[in-house]
Amino acid sequence: MSWNLGPLEFSNRLILGTGKYPSFDVMQACHKAACVEMITLAVRRFDLSAQGEANILHWISPHMRILPNTAGCYSVEDAVRVARLAREALQTDWIKLEVIGDPHSLYPDNEETLVAARELVKEKFIVLPYVNADPILAKKLADIGCSAVMPLGSAIGSGQGVQNASTLKLIREVLRPYKIPMIVDAGVGTASDACIAMELGADGVLMNTAVAEAQNPILMAEAMHAAVQSGRSAFEAGRMPLRSVAQASSPTSGLIASSLDSNRAG
Questions:
Q1: Which of 82, 92, 216, 220 gives a 20 to 30 Å CA spacing to 114?
Q2: What b/e readout covers 136-146, taking b as 16+ CB neighbours within 10 angstroms?
Q3: What is the 3-state secondary structure (H, E, C) of 143-157?
Q4: The pLDDT of residue 179
């Protein structure tokens, strides 16, 4: 199950967020239950200068890889500025790049994202851009040196699951020569959604709301961990062919003649 993301190797293909949890201790328990090695943090939405338990960093294991993100940014300038602030505050070159184009749908602005990604790659960031599912954009992002591409499965926070399966498959094929991961980010609502994303060939899944807003977040975190593992195993195993007609699951040769067959023969 190990995989490479940027310069590092991870054993867990699930990445969780840090927002919307009922409390920091529930968030921490979910991270442990899902056995995650990386979490994403919206640097604009938390006071990283807070003291003690009021600071979210108090609840994040020092062994956890923090992936800061530029959530809430609506322009190239804003996203680049927040990325630089995150680098300084958290002492990391990793950034999940988000440039939102519409406050209602929260869909990413693909053009602005590409411009911001080009600038951040030049500044030696490890850039993981969150984008609408678009194979052409995915190729452009890979060409400029992004370390992964993170297409949405459906609208962020919607819980509608993977609604663009064929497009995600195309993106996976586009990225294959570049040997960089495709991480499905946004839209997952329950464990079966995560499993489907992995069965389609995603290298990882990033989610937040599906766990944080579950009736039992800790149990859902466990379910998501199992679903990602199961989906990846199914992808690597290779599913059976789809057929338009039925096919017997047992051999048809050497069948023992029934009494009905004998009567018909007589």
A1: 92
A2: ebbbbbbebbb
A3: HCCCCCEEECCCCCC
A4: 95
265 by DSSP, 3-state: which? helix
pLDDT on residue 45: 79
- What are the E-state strand segments in 108-197? 126-131, 150-151, 183-185
Closest CA to 5 of 165, 149, 216: 149
Among residues 224, 212, 223, 216, the alpha carbon closest in space to that of 17 is found at 212
Query: Alpha-carbon distance 106 to 103, whole Å?
Result: 5
Closest to 149 in 3D by CA, of 174, 124, 125: 174
pTM of the prediction?
0.90
User: Token digits for 128?
Assistant: 């993981």
Q: What is the CATH number of the domain that holds 88?
A: 3.20.20.70
Q: From 136, 158, 159, 161, select the one nearest 149 (Cα to Cα).
A: 136
Considering the domain boundaries, does residue 25 fall inside one? yes
Q: How many domains does the chain have?
A: 1
Top mean-pLDDT range of 32-46, 58-72, 130-144 = 130-144
Give me the domain span that covers residue 195. Answer: 3-240
What residues pair up with 39 in beta bridges, in sequence order? 16, 66
Residue 160 maps to a domain:
yes
Q: What is the CB neighbour count within 10 angstroms for residue 133? A: 23
* Catalytic status, residue 96: yes
Q: How far apart are CA 13 and CA 224, in angstroms?
A: 10
Catalytic residue from among 96, 139, 140, 169? 96
